[in-house]
Specification:
The protein is of the alpha/beta class. It is about 40% helix and about 15% strand. The protein is built from 9 helices and 12 strands. Helix 1 links the parallel strand 1 and strand 2.
């Protein structure tokens, strides 16, 4: 197969590229990042027109974690709309034979909703991530309209927070689970107290990056012109994650400072996995402690 991956230098993109190469050495895989092709530029993808791709994983997005969206909402709207519009136009004009597998976001769901796939386009996205959530909705709508008019094939997958080894820590805001690990590792190393954002009672769901990719590869064979959540099916308080991390690192939990004045986002954000379990009923995910241990051991080498 001929496969294209946009956002190939990101956490998910690097792991997906590696796994696809290992899965079948005969696959021709082209993985691009913004340093290779700036998707915000009209016609930037034309250099790939001579290649007819069987599948395209569209992972590229202009965003960061934490409170980034509070201060860059306009830039997120403009940059992601450019990225997605240029990509969809190129797909329609030059790659109609290919199936698109794109990534959605849980922040497109309305706060307090069921976070079920049927509600992805209903209500208002999470207020603090409104612009980004809307661009992901627009990406799905773009895929749907092109499929309806021209018979194209697509699949959108919505992940909970991804974690695992191979995460790059320099020059960006970190997703909450990496942020907690890094703060506690540094506190342990320098014999300091670790300060975490919020009171610690907000709940979050994480899914190991390898579990996400494995389920993605299974779903793309089963689903067409659809949207599917990929989550762990369970959520825990930040304090629960923190206690496990402290235990693994051998850091005193009582030294943790929870700063209630800092940005924390929503109180709960667990994806509905009913559809996922119906499609892949027997899939077993990596145990949480095992995944955190693997992630911690990897990050130890980077601080």
């Amino acid at each position: 197969m001929k496969i294209l991956i946009t956002g190939g230098s990101g956490f998910l993109g690097r792991h997906l590229t590696s796994i696809l190469k290992k899965t079948n050495s005969k696959n021709e895989i082209i993985s691009i990042s913004s340093s290779d092709i700036d998707l915000r530029v009209t016609g930037a993808l034309d250099k790939l027109n001579d290649i007819k791709f069987d599948k395209i994983y569209h992972l590229a997005a202009w965003t960061q974690a934490g409170d980034f969206s509070l201060y860059h909402s306009a830039e997120q709207w403009i940059n992601n709309q450019l990225i997605n519009s240029n990509f969809l136009n190129w797909w329609n004009e030059n790659q109609r034979q290919s199936k698109i597998i794109s990534i959605g976001t849980s922040c497109s769901y309305e706060e307090g909703s069921s976070l079920d796939e049927k509600d992805y386009l209903k209500g208002q996205p999470l207020k603090s991530l409104y612009a980004y959530g809307m661009t992901k909705r627009m990406l799905l709508i773009g895929q749907q309209t092109l499929a309806k008019q021209f018979g194209l094939k697509h699949l959108t997958l919505v992940p909970s927070t991804l974690y695992g080894p191979g995460y790059e820590i320099n020059g960006k805001n970190h997703h909450f689970i990496f942020d907690i690990i890094l703060k506690i590792l540094r506190a342990k190393k320098y014999d300091k107290k670790a300060e975490l954002w919020g009171d610690g009672h907000q709940k979050r769901e994480i899914v190991h990056v390898f579990d996400f990719i494995n389920q993605m590869l299974l779903l793309e064979k089963k689903c067409e012109n659809d949207i599917v959540n990929i989550g762990a099916g369970d959520e825990f308080e930040i304090r629960h994650f923190t206690k496990i991390i402290c235990d693994i690192i051998n850091y005193e939990y009582d030294k943790i400072i929870f700063n209630k004045k800092k940005f924390t986002g929503v109180k709960s954000k667990k994806l509905s996995t009913k559809k996922l379990k119906e499609l892949i009923p027997n899939y077993k995910t990596k145990p949480l402690r095992d995944g955190l241990l693997e992630t911690i051991n990897d990050l130890k080498e980077k601080i």
